[in-house]
Structures are given as C-alpha cells and as structure tokens.
C-alpha cells in the first residue's frame, strides 16, 4: 500500500478502484453502526452550491459537523460570482484564503476538469450538470448493500429521465462494475443508449427488479419543448399502487429525491415499507462522512494502489 497520499479528489466513482468503493461502503455502514468519527478539527471546508439542494448540502454540512471540521460559509447569491467571477477564480480565492477542501455542485457537466488541473486541495463533487453525482451513488450503494449484503447479481432498474440524470449515469456505471444487472426504463425519448443498459417497459421492470430506482423528471435540464402531462406520465412510467403490488416481496424502492409525489411514484407509496427513500437520506450523512474521511485521511486505505478502475 502507498504511504504517501496523492491529493484525493472525489469527482466520480470511475476514478476509484472497486476495492476503494467497497471500503467506502464499509466505512459508511460502520459510521451508521456508531463507529467513532475521526477528528478533523484542523480542516476548513467550503460548500459551494451553484444549483439548489436540500439533501446533499444539508448532509454534507452534517457530515462536516460530525467530523469536527470548520465550515466556512459561502453563498453564491451574495458572493462575487454575481459580479462575473469565474468558478476557477472563486475556487482559487478560497484555496488562497485557507480552505482545505471544496464541496461543489454546479450546473456545468464536468465543471471540475479545469479545477483538478489548477487546485492543490480536494474537490468533492456534489453533482455536475447531467454528468455525475458520486456521493448520491455511494449512499445508494450503501442502502442496497445494507439491504442485500451485496449488489452482485441483483437486478436494478433505473426508471425515468435517464438522459438528463446524473444519478442514473453515476449509478449505471458503478452498478455494472460491481456485478449488478442493470436496466433502464421510462420514456424512450429520454433513454440514452450510451449508458449501455437495456430498456424495459415499466410493467416488465416491476416484475424483474430487486431494486427499483425511480428518478424525478429533470425539467430544468429540458429545452422546454416537451409536452409533459404528470397524470399520463404516472400512468405509463410511474410506480402506481397496482405496479407496487407486482414487485417481488423482497424488492425495494429507491429514489434520490426530491420526489414529485403522484408523478414518478404514487403519493402514499413514498412511505411504503418497501420504500427506502428516507433511509437513503439518513444514509447520505454516513456516506458523506466516509467520503470526507477518505479525502483527508493521512492513513493508507486498502485499494489505494490498485488499478482495477479502468473498465
Ligand atoms: N438527491 C439530491 O441530490 O437531492 P438535493 O438536490 O436536494 O441535494
């Protein structure tokens, strides 16, 4: 194992080995079981959210608090971003002031590429446009492993607005790498063949899946020309009561949220015993603690020096 650590950015799961990802899942579950959190009181973080967020921002804040980090306040609405400052200059400024790491959500897919070449402090990607949402994927994996012990061999169907969803893209890639059988479902016009997952109808999906992962329609990333009728969408692509009754007894329902109740899922089913939606939110804090520990720990972590992340 390496003894000198590189700067650990957490921008996608693609750049991590499967051993590192499994270690992160294990650490997330350990924190949930009550493992003491390490003390990072010498670290100052800044959370930069250029897109709205409830869960990701709040759970990163909670994770930073539990790791005893100092959180330097930053609001895009009152910052010099409003005077035309670039993302790169904002980040370089925060690094110069003394930030040890930046948690960033931004609408530009791959925004972090130029930052990786410029900054000497870790970048933690809290979502980039329609690109990746790796901390969401980690908490989703944690929730699946918590339920089944493994994702290997499990049938996962990701349903909805696949083309515009960073959650779908992150999850499809990592689930395939970890041995799950992954399908897509939802409107064919939003199906993205480049994701490399076969398409099922929603009726086929509910009968085959172990894990049904529902997505919100990402209206903010559409060009505004699509006719959208929530009731039609629910009937054709949503999790209705009738479809819920056809799931396997052991199957679970995930959704990254925010949920549009009555659209991708019937209102009352959000709190159904097989829904893990609020458990995912709880798990998000532990997964983000594990991510921050991974970024800032000076200890070697199993899998650091492996090179099994190229597929
Ligand atoms: N799941 C998720 O990313 O939620 P927020 O947009 O509220 O952070």
Automatic annotation (TrEMBL):
Instruction: Spell out where the chain crosses the membrane.
Output: none
The organism's place on the tree of life at top rank = Bacteria
Per the database record, which ranges form the Aspartate/ornithine carbamoyltransferase carbamoyl-P binding domain?
Answer: 8-146
Q: Which UniProt keywords apply?
A: Pyrimidine biosynthesis, Transferase
InterPro entries in the record = Asp/Orn_carbamoyltranf_P-bd, Asp/Orn_carbamoylTrfase, Asp/Orn_carbamoylTrfase_sf, Asp_carbamoyltransf, Asp_carbamoyltransf_Asp/Orn-bd
UniProt domain Aspartate/ornithine carbamoyltransferase Asp/Orn-binding: residue ranges: 153-295
Belongs to which family? Answer: Belongs to the aspartate/ornithine carbamoyltransferase superfamily. ATCase family.
Catalyses: carbamoyl phosphate + L-aspartate = N-carbamoyl-L-aspartate + phosphate + H(+)
Q: What does this protein do?
A: Catalyzes the condensation of carbamoyl phosphate and aspartate to form carbamoyl aspartate and inorganic phosphate, the committed step in the de novo pyrimidine nucleotide biosynthesis pathway.
Pathway connected to this protein:
Pyrimidine metabolism; UMP biosynthesis via de novo pathway; (S)-dihydroorotate from bicarbonate: step 2/3
The name this protein carries in UniProt is Aspartate carbamoyltransferase
Enzyme Commission numbers on file: 2.1.3.2
Pfam families, A to Z = OTCace (PF00185), OTCace_N (PF02729)
- UniProt-annotated binding residues for L-aspartate: 83, 166, 216
Q: How does it assemble?
A: Heterododecamer (2C3:3R2) of six catalytic PyrB chains organized as two trimers (C3), and six regulatory PyrI chains organized as three dimers (R2).
Which Gene Ontology molecular function entries are recorded, alphabetically? aspartate carbamoyltransferase activity
Under PROSITE patterns, the record lists:
CARBAMOYLTRANSFERASE
Detail which positions bind carbamoyl phosphate: 55-56, 105, 133, 136, 257-258
């Amino acid at each position: 194992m390496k003894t000198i650590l590189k700067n650990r950015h957490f921008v996608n799961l693609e750049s991590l080995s499967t051993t590192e990802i499994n270690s992160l899942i294990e650490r997330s579950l350990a924190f949930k079981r009550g493992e003491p959190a390490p003390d990072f009181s010498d670290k100052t973080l800044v959370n930069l959210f250029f897109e709205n967020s409830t869960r990701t921002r709040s759970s990163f804040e909670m994770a930073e608090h539990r790791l005893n980090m100092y959180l330097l306040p930053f609001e895009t609405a009152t910052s010099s971003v409003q005077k035309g400052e670039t993302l790169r200059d904002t980040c370089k400024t925060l690094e110069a002031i003394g930030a040890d790491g930046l948690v960033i959500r931004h609408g530009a897919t791959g925004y972090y590429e130029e930052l990786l070449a410029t900054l000497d402090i870790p970048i933690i990607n809290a979502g980039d446009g329609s690109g990746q949402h790796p901390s969401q994927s980690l908490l989703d994996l944690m929730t699946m492993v918590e339920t089944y012990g493994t994702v290997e061999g499990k049938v996962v169907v990701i349903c909805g607005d696949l083309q515009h969803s960073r959650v779908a893209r992150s999850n499809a890639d990592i689930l395939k790498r970890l041995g799950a059988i992954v399908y897509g479902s939802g409107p064919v016009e939003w199906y993205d063949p480049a994701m490399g997952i076969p398409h099922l109808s929603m009726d086929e999906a509910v009968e085959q899946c172990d894990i049904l992962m529902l997505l919100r329609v990402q209206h903010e990333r559409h060009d505004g020309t699509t006719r959208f009728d929530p009731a039609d969408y629910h009937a054709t692509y949503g999790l209705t009561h009738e479809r819920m009754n056809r799931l396997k007894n052991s199957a679970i329902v995930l959704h990254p949220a925010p949920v549009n109740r009555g659209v991708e899922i019937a209102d009352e089913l959000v709190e159904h015993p097989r829904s893990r939606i609020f458990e995912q939110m709880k798990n998000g804090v532990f997964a983000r603690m594990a991510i921050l520990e991974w970024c800032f720990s000076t200890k070697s972590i199993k899998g650091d020096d492996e090179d099994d992340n190229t597929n």
